[in-house]
Amino acid sequence: MHQIYYDTETTGSSTAFDSITEIYLSLNDENFQELENLHLRCRLKEGVIPNLNALLITKTTTDQLKGNNLSHAQLIHQVYSKIQTWSPAYFLGYGSINFDVEFLRKKFFQNLQDPYIMNFNGNKNVDVLSLIRAAKLVKDDVIKTEISEKGNPVFKLDKLMGHQDAHGAKPDTIQAKKVSEIVFKKANAVWRSAFMTASRIDCENLIRNEKMFCNLEYFYGKLRIFLVHHYLFHPIYKWGICWDLQHHPKDYINLDKQALTDAMSKNPKIFRTVRTNKSPVLLNSSYSKKVEPYSKISTEDLNQRIEILKQAKDFKKLVSIILQEKALDKQHDKESNISQIKPEEKIYTGFPSTEEKQKMFNFHTAEWKDKVKFMDKFSLDYNTHFAKRYLYEEQPNVLPDSIYKEVKREIAQRILSTDEVNWTTVSEFYRQIDQERNKSENNPKRMKLLDEYNDFVMSIQKKYEAA
């Protein structure tokens, strides 16, 4: 199956509220030979105030923010169409599972398109960052890295590969592909393992069928190995809930509900979670033989612990009840605040019906004057919101005057807010500018750039102050 290497550059780190400024996708065969690519830049999405730090890191100019002929919606549409054409494929990005995948998913969602196109129709995902961390863990000489003050390998892509054009979508994609080739050639067992869990179904099947395996968790700047046995799937989230085999189950299987709840909340954890929808890298159990405390536990003892867990049916039921109650409490808290959730944050509140999906498709195929009619046809309130925003940004002249003013007022309220919110506001941007100016007084070139950014955001402020 083909491999798609990709990277996005964005206006900030909020996957719900920031926007894409640049994206590069490279279609490759199994021998890492590029077959085709797509490289797009777009102007700033209407209603978005960029984060200053993101602009400085990606070296985005004000000319690029306002001068590109391609709109944000057009960029998203072209990316979506290209993914459809290239599917099925493996998607590989550096640190992509928790950022690029989420970012694109939410932009598709906000663009009235299927947000899960990178997960369905045979498509699968591999995170190159997880790949190289795992490879370095089991084979230290796979790649040279800088070492942090705490003695841990540093996996920032620009440090890892030493490329000068870091934080550009194309050069970062090229470097991610080079890292992948290194793992493929020098740690092929890790490469194969990553591709065995590149989808939720593949991952679920693997952990069901393996008696024990190594789960990898990254925290406090270090990747760690945990030898685990899959015990059950989370009753709500469907993640793999696995017993950490460093603990003997006989110490826990007879606990009452409160005592077990307390035990499950303490460190070191007795259960390890495998997020099967996050393409985790799982390794063969043999990798634990050089890691304490697993290296000190005999195979016979490990098998005995697993057998005890299999026989403890009531214990499993109790674990499931505890997990379910905790998850439902969290869901209840979210639902109680549902009125405060913005449309852009509602992606995980439920799936659209088949009928609603058809309306979303018809919206994109309709003539501009007919798209307006869909604002009353969608059954999901957030789709109505996205339809209004889409037309406001792409063809405002087709909107009734009342709807146009409504959307403009909503944008004004957001970007001119002085509250602490989940997106960058005008006032927050000015605060960032002032902070950066204090650090750049002796750098005329940087000061000039900051003035340009400041003037650009002032023009946005002026546009919406009278809304």
Short key terms for the protein model shown above:
467 residues; alpha+beta
Q: What do you see in this structure?
A:
With 467 residues, the chain is an alpha+beta fold. 47% of the residues lie in helices and 14% in strands. It has 18 helices and 10 strands. The protein has a 5-stranded mixed beta sheet, sandwiched between helices. The chain has a 5-stranded antiparallel beta sheet with strand order 9-8-7-6-10. It is globular, with a radius of gyration of 25 Å. The model has no long low-confidence stretch (mean pLDDT 94).
Largest beta sheet, briefly? 5 strands, mixed
Structural shape: globular
In which order are the strands of the major sheet placed? 3-2-1-4-5
- Residue stretches low in confidence (pLDDT < 50, at least 5 long) are none
Mean pLDDT comes to 94
Give the oligomer, counting copies of the same chain as homo and different chains as hetero: single chain
- What Rg, in angstroms, do the CA atoms define? 25 Å
The computed structural class is alpha+beta
Q: Note the gap between the termini.
A: 51 Å
Number of helices: 18
Strands, total number: 10
SSE topology string: EEEHHHEHEHHHHHEEEHEEHHHHHHHH
Strand content: 5-15%
Helix share bin: 40-55%
Topology summary:
Elements: E1 2-10, E2 20-28, E3 34-41, H1 52-58, H2 62-67, H3 72-86, E4 89-93, H4 100-110, E5 124-127, H5 128-138, H6 157-161, H7 169-186, H8 188-195, H9 200-209, E6 213-219, E7 222-233, E8 240-244, H10 257-265, E9 271-274, E10 282-284, H11 299-311, H12 313-336, H13 354-365, H14 368-371, H15 381-394, H16 401-415, H17 426-439, H18 444-465
Parallel strand pairs: 1-4, 4-5
Antiparallel strand pairs: 1-2, 2-3, 6-7, 6-10, 7-8, 8-9
